[in-house]
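Handout, section B. The chain below has 198 residues.
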Amino acid sequence: MAQVELDTLKAFDEILEPDSRQKSFAVVNRVTGEARPLSLRDKYQAVEMITLAQYVPEEIREHFDTARNLLVYSWFVYRFNQVAELHAFASLEFALKTKCGESPKGLKKLLETAVQRGWIVDSGFKYYRMGAVDDMPNDEIDSGNPDTKDVQEYCKTLVETMPFIRNELAHGSRMLHPNGLTTLAIVADLINQLFESK
């Protein structure tokens, strides 16, 4: 079994230095195939693309912006990826409770309610339609699996997976991965759908 790097409080004179794991990532030019190291500006611009619409209540937008800021700061502290994810899940639960009127309780039951009431559907997910955050948005891409008639197939998958991941993070875990951007993009799409006029 591979040894996991132990994260400790950064030394004061290294606070503004990128986490060493950031050196593992690169930006590839899709036209030329040339690669260059990922930069803080790249990270910021990717996070900046993930937004909540103005029709989402202000207090939920503010809550979600904390997750966005945490994700930007994961440039300096890599484990902030998962802290940003956890906070994004809390923003989602906040949005669902606001939409449902505080009832039912628990993220899974709230998501199930949103699916049952048709507040969220597969076609409302930019990330799901594109399959990649860096290409968002593109409204010309067809949504969902063409072989299925269930317009909420992806939503139903999220009902099962999101509470599990949130609970792993919330109740203590060594989980560490670079997918915070993906999680925030999906959560943003979920929240935006909850409050848009259908």
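Note. Residues 112 and 131 are 23 Å apart (CA to CA). Compare this with the example in section A.
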